[in-house]
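Hey forum,

I'm writing up a methods section and want to include a predicted complex as supplementary material. The small molecule is zinc ion. I've pasted the protein sequence and the SMILES. Can someone with a working setup run it? I'll credit the forum in the acknowledgements.
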Amino acid sequence: MLDFETCNAARLRRDPAYDGVFFTAVKTTGIYCRPVCPVRQPLTRNVVFYPSAAAAETEGYRPCLRCRPETAPFCPAWNGTRATVARALKLIEAGALDEADIEQLAARLGIGARHLARLFQRHVGATPLQTAQTFRLQRAKRLLDETDLRMTEIARRAGFGSLRRFNAAFAELYKRPPSTLRRKGPQRHGAGESHLHARA
Ligand SMILES: [Zn+2]
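Reply by user p_vandermeer:
Happy to help. Structure tokens for the complex are below, copy them as they are.
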């Protein structure tokens, strides 16, 4: 993890080179952002930095609705053991922990489950299960933004075992039910475009 001064300077100049490298959490609002977030910048004394979206969420922060940090890329400059973590993150993002368990994931990576847990602690700042939950919520949020699918279908496609689990996880992170983040009205933008960028 980078030091505070490096992160702080990068987020103050909204440096895209640091997008996905660290995340800025704001203690006064409980929200975390990407370094490139267009929203008015918080005071330095109110920010804290995390190496991943999952780490920020584990500490109780929820994603900013403007810069959508839960969709930020992970740092590409990893090597050595970090490459194993990057592979694990890819597999988890693809749903590896939605059906299989940690032991099976670790076996696919050619390492033990305990070693995998240690690597995550060091490089991600969250457990593989917490990370899987972050990815599920990210998938669900994208489906809410871009489709008209029913809630039960969104829960299923996002990798939640049930609608109840989806609702509980969503409410815990966003502090509101998923239906309130659904766009109203008949017209929709194309996939990938967020309604939050549209201004009246
Ligand atoms: Zn933001």
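Some notes you might quote in the supplement: The pocket of zinc ion is lined by residues 33, 37, 39, 64, 66-67 (CB under 6 Å). The mean pLDDT is 84.
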